[in-house]
Amino acid sequence: MPEIKRTLTHEQVKKLFALCEKYEVYDYDVQIEVVDHIASSIEEKWEKNPNLSFGWALKKSFTNLGWKSFRKLESKLNRQMKRKFTRILWHYIVEYFKLPKILITFAITMCLFLLFQLTNNNKLIITVYCIPISIISLFYNFKYFPQKIDINPPGGKSFMIVNYLKELGARTGRLVFFPFWIMLFGTTYGLNNTNSLPLELGIAFILSLFTVFLYGYFFFLPKKIKEYFLEHFAEFAV
């Protein structure tokens, strides 16, 4: 008669989650990864010795994993998640350099460039373009953006991905000041009456790229993160 493979019970899995809490691993998505690692290690030991108690198997597995490995795994998952969503954002931006979306980037760039060519006051054009964007962005960031990143899992559970979404909101708040840096650059380097076509084209392109990037940060990336959360943790969505 073939031997039945021994697996963890529901109560034993709960003990592994409690162990994570004990060692200050509070993010549920990280806990899942840690529990999976320990559970796999325990079940490997049971394959070699089916009579080994859960307590001894856990002790040996935890000794192999170690408390520091909890932190390493947490840090690794954090980096992986941030890289994933950074790639998503840049993929979105790259889309604006392909047909047909590149026409939007091209149109914004050429409109600004033509305005630079039609007036001798480049600083005015930069100011008129940047100030409304910054004001609208600041208003949106504090008024509406928190609603877009609002994920409140029930039961008080913490998720690394939710914390990252909140961090994203803070980062976006700093990003909206970028147009002011462009204005400062223009003032410092005398762009007010320049006739340098490459420089004017470069500034026009940077401003159009920033507009695309800001839109992606405000609308596209939060949407993708929430979709990821709903896909992996639908039972915690409210």
Question: Would you give an account of this structure?
Answer:
The chain has 238 residues and is mainly α. It has helices spanning 10-22, 28-48, 54-65, 67-95, 102-118, 122-143, 145-148, 160-175, 178-188, 197-232. The longest helix is centred in the last third of the chain and has 36 residues, at 197-232. The radius of gyration is 26 Å and the shape is elongated. It starts with 9 loop residues before the first helix and ends in a 6-residue tail after the last helix.
How much helix, percentage-wise, in residues?
over 70%
Structural class: mainly alpha
Query: Could you tell me the strand content as a percent range?
Result: under 5%
Low-confidence stretches: none
Mean pLDDT: 79
Tally of helical runs = 10
Our measurement of the CA-to-CA distance between the termini, rounded to an integer number of angstroms, reads 48 Å
- How many strands? 0
Coarse morphology: elongated
Order of helices and strands: HHHHHHHHHH
The largest sheet is:
none
| Rg (C-alpha, Å) | 26 Å
Question: Key features?
Answer:
238 residues; single chain; mainly alpha; 0% strand
In short:
By secondary structure, the chain is an all-alpha fold. The chain is 76% helix and 0% strand.
List the helices and strands and how they pair.
Elements: H1 10-22, H2 28-48, H3 54-65, H4 67-95, H5 102-118, H6 122-143, H7 145-148, H8 160-175, H9 178-188, H10 197-232
